[in-house]
Amino acid sequence: MKAELVLHSNDDLLCVNAARVSMDKESKLFTFRKDKPKGSDEGLVHYLADHRHWTPFSHARFTIEANDVFINLLNVNPEDIASAVWRTDPLKGSFKFRTSLFGWANLIKKGFVFDHYVGAVVNVLKQHVPHSLKALLPEIGDNVKSRFPVWETEDETDPAFIDVTMRETIPIFIARQR
Question: Where residue 153 sits, what CATH number does that domain have?
Fold first, then answer.
């Protein structure tokens, strides 16, 4: 058995490589349909989103912070915030929330991100995963405006907000038992 830490940039490439790991394949550079019509990474991202294969989109995770609560936690369904963590920091006067790209897309689609913050959240996600976000939220346009700012948390030290991606090579009978 072997476990390797996957060093990544929390980007579209992480999502496609998570999808291809079971076939022991990996992309080094994100490819586009216009350059590679069959088997492009852009095509794979859209295929995964169209067929609701959500797990590759769960590897890219983002912590977003604002001066106020920007998620409607009162009416949210527990399944919509599975694996999410959040904290209110009274000293800084801020609220931070961490979930996967798939989690963020779900929260936006279902209206749990307050309207005046949606644009700012989308803009943070677009910086890292523009192609995956476009596949998951095709209805979101290019020029999304926001009335209130959000920002990504830098240099996180809270253990609840830190996670890693591992690539494991294990015998099939052990993988099936997991």
Answer: 3.30.1360
